[in-house]
Amino acid sequence: MRIIDISKEKDFLNKLFDRSKLEMDEVNKKVDKIIWDVKQNGDKALKEYTKEYDGLMLENLLVSKEEMEEAIKNTSRDLLEDLTKAKENIMKFHKKQLRNSYSLYEEEDIILSQLIRPLERVGIYIPGGKAAYPSTVLMNAIPAKIAGVKEIVMITPPCPDGSIKPSILAAASIAGVDKIYKVGGAQGIAALAFGTESIPKVDKITGPGNIYVAMAKKKVSGYVGIDMIAGPSEILIIADKWANPKYIAADLISQAEHDEMAAAILVTDWEPMAYKVMEEIEVQLQTIDRKEIVKKSLENYGAIIVTSCMAESMDVVNAIGPEHLEILTRDPFEVYKGVKNAGAIFLGEYSPEAVGDYFAGPNHTLPTSSTSRFSSPLGVDDFIKKTSLIYYSKTALERSKNSIVRIAEEEGLTGHANSIRVRFGEVEL
Amino acid sequence: MRIIDISKEKDFLNKLFDRSKLEMDEVNKKVDKIIWDVKQNGDKALKEYTKEYDGLMLENLLVSKEEMEEAIKNTSRDLLEDLTKAKENIMKFHKKQLRNSYSLYEEEDIILSQLIRPLERVGIYIPGGKAAYPSTVLMNAIPAKIAGVKEIVMITPPCPDGSIKPSILAAASIAGVDKIYKVGGAQGIAALAFGTESIPKVDKITGPGNIYVAMAKKKVSGYVGIDMIAGPSEILIIADKWANPKYIAADLISQAEHDEMAAAILVTDWEPMAYKVMEEIEVQLQTIDRKEIVKKSLENYGAIIVTSCMAESMDVVNAIGPEHLEILTRDPFEVYKGVKNAGAIFLGEYSPEAVGDYFAGPNHTLPTSSTSRFSSPLGVDDFIKKTSLIYYSKTALERSKNSIVRIAEEEGLTGHANSIRVRFGEVEL
Questions:
Q1: B388 touches chain A (CB under 8 A)
Q2: Which long-range contacts (CB under 8 A, 24 or more apart) does B49-53 make?
Q3: Which chain B residue lies closest to A419 (C-alpha atoms)?
Q4: What confidence tens digit (pLDDT) does each residue in A40-93 have?
Q5: Which residues of A form the catalytic set?
Q6: Which of A45, A353, B73, B133 would bridge A41 by S-S if both were Cys, CB 3.0 to 4.6 A apart?
């Protein structure tokens, strides 16, 4: 962790934004091959890649009822209750995002509607290994469920013994996932996009993954819908002299422990805070399981930016447009009004990021790498589709026909003009 | 135009969906070079490419006030009124899409909100030449305006004499576009994405374009937001024996005249309709300016599919998920309920596609190539961003702390757990 002078180190911002770019030739070719193979050979290809990458030959990809029951038995009652509480909070928040279709009835002989309907079938990718998080299951499946998606399919790579972490299966059961398949990586994404003998083709794929998964999602996008391609996670904390450096240090560390690419940034207009936080990080680091990851992440993408005033701090915030923004100042409810771009904003000293990651209700899938300028947290909107409906009566079309014909002719599209005229016997053949 | 048996010609659907895939190496390399050049050399690069591709050296890229006034003077009063009426209809329909931010106040000490705010600055691409359509200006700019976007920038390639089609400028004025620049192609997209001396960087780019434009949009996506990459346009008409073959022929032609890649498809359960429509097309073709384009398009991607009953027709509709769907049957209001996937549905014989293209109010930018399975017409949603807001009081965090800590520990993220504990003096250092 070091103090940087943003006016002199412009490169820091570029370095930050560039973390998420996928431009690796080798990964590119491998993923192309995997997708092609799965399209050609279906389940056979999936099983071979599972052997290669996950180290086991599976008979069945589908998780059985017995495995589900076993997993729930192996999850502590406390954790099941915690996940259920989290589910309720997530549902409450996301239900407010539901929208109805609407219709306009104009002049009694025109009907215009926007139909809002759920996607038919959705696929959720859940990473395995160290990044197998039950919270990810809840955050992806629940908005789909609320949208009314008819079938939610989940895929996740198995452990070498063929099992899946019990809390992942428990979360899937709590969230209402319909089917779970043991397959990960680019091969899993290809299976969801094109279907195989055992895995059904879906309409959209959401969920995080490693670089192979991200690349595969990018490649199948257009054949199926995808959510954002999330870059590495990031937090920005804006603090004044009233903030508690212990809390700041803890929250920066909690971000940095995700992976070595994660970015943890403090912006403060009170220079002594910079030193206090650096000291606190050293102390707290001792208590962290993933100490080595935290150290590397803070070295690479950690930064403390000292500004001359709050207004300057806000400029930094808005230039970065962070995924997570914590406001640890005396008046967070005033400060947040100046925030133009952020995925989620955490207000005040008892709203650490972890509250949002697991529990509060808003989604933890958020726009990274400054994309909060134009994109949004995952939500119910990501699992619906809209269709327009247009009905004109004969008299309605007659009233408007001259305007439509004139615009069509201005555009040089006589076929369009004729399609109106022909209905009133006005095409001269 | 020919009759195809969909059960035997499975390839037809694949051919249809594959029209939109951009996999051309040469275009790819050219676009990479152009984007790099514009990033390095700004306006200088823009002017050189404009010389190369549009055939003139420009002094100023910005369209002046005088040029705007001149353009409006050169547009007929009738057309100005038509475009204004269209604008009013588009506004009325899209205003219903506006949504408010919401907040949940839980147990008096938790606040959760979803803020909905407009994008700051948006760029709209409008093609030049034969595809310079004033309706495109309205359909892209008006939803942005309604969303509350602060600045709408439009770019479009100039004619060889340095002018822009008057009705394009008039439509921009009517729709409330803030600034217009004379630049097109991949260079224009690069300018909007990264900014140059004269063109400001935007947050999102929307609007149609040729393959260079589409490829450039795909490449800058992530640095800026983009709307869908639209494939060639398509119509599917579902007709029973009650339909008027003259209207069907006219509407198929109106789709086919867009370009040689456009697809016009009739699905009918009444075989004689197939022959009647083919005859009508031959007759009506004589009256069309773009006859050659229509012929080629119908040859390549035109098709009449004869089914044994309406239910089978509906299966074809849903397998294709067309951009435009016309229902020319005796009971369109019953039939549409069976439609799972479509961009826009036109009901009954006086609602030809052209009504929606220009005038009725719903957007004419619609999902193509079967992407209506998971994507939606352009609308106000495309010009807003959402941000989550989370406030927990000390007592609120205390009530939930055990749950949050337990989930964090299950995920192996002790830093997350500590960020909660540290606030209650529970981290042992």
A1: yes
A2: B49/B183, B49/B185, B49/B187, B50/B157, B50/B158, B50/B182, B50/B183, B50/B184, B50/B187, B53/B157, B53/B184, B53/B185, B53/B187
A3: B250
A4: 999 999 999 999 999 999 999 999 999 999 999 999 999 999 999 999 999 999
A5: 323-324
A6: A45
CA distance A106 to chain B (A): 10
Residue in chain B nearest A205 by alpha carbon: B374
Give the three-state DSSP class for A327: strand
Nearest chain B alpha carbon to A283: B429
Identify the band that residue B155 occupies on the pLDDT scale cut at 50, 70 and 90.
very high
Give the span between the Cα atoms of B360 and B356, in whole angstroms: 5
Four-residue CA torsion sign, B65, B71, B74, B75: negative
Contact by Cβ (8 Å): A326, A356: no
CB environment A159-175: b (16+ within 10 A), e (fewer): eeebebbbbbbbbbbbb
Topology of the domain comprising A25-226: Rossmann fold (3.40.50)
Interface test with A, best of B121, B336, B410 (most A CBs within 10 A): B410
Q: Which residues of B are catalytic?
A: 323-324
- B418 to A250: CB separation less than 8 angstroms, yes or no: yes
Q: What is the pLDDT of residues B54-83, one digit of tens each?
A: 999 999 999 999 999 999 999 999 999 999
Which residue, A408, A110, A112, is CA-closest to B254?
Answer: A408
ipTM exceeding the 0.85 mark: yes
A364 appears as a binding residue in the annotation: no
Nearest to B189 by CA among B36, B325, B407: B36
Domain ranges of chain A: 3-20+232-361, 25-226, 393-424
Find tokens 């790498």 and name the residue. A369
Angstrom CA distances, A286 to A276, B99, B423, B428, stand at 17, 47, 17, 10
Is A371's CB within 8 Å of B222's CB?
yes
Nearest chain B alpha carbon to A102: B96
Considering only CB atoms, A96 lies closest to which of B102, B344, B390, namely B102
pLDDT at B22 over 70: no
Residues A26-35 have a mean pLDDT of 92
pLDDT at B20 over 70: no
Contacts of A342 in chain B (CB under 8 A): 387
Q: Which CATH class is domain B3-20+231-361?
A: alpha beta
Confirm or reject contact between B23 and chain A (CB < 8 A): no
For chain A, say whether B151 makes contact (Cβ under 8 Å).
no
Q: What is the CATH number of domain A3-20+232-361?
A: 3.40.50.1980
Residue type, B413: L
8 A C-beta contact, residue A244 and residue A214: no
Question: Which of A392, A428, A429 should we substitute to test contact with B (largest number of B Cβ atoms within 10 Å)?
Answer: A392
CB contact A289 to B (< 8 Å): yes
Question: Does residue A391 have a pLDDT over 60?
Answer: yes
Judging contacts by C-beta atoms under 8 Å, the chain A residues touching residue B365 are none
* Same fold: A3-20+232-361 with A25-226: yes
Give which of B400, B100, B412 is closest to A360, Cα–Cα.
B400
> Please, what is the Cα angle at A393 between A389 and A396, to 5 degrees?
100
- B370 Rama class: left (phi>0) / alpha (psi -120 to 50) / beta: left
Under DSSP, the state recorded for B366 is -
Nearest partner of B322 among B263, B254, B249, judged by Cα: B263
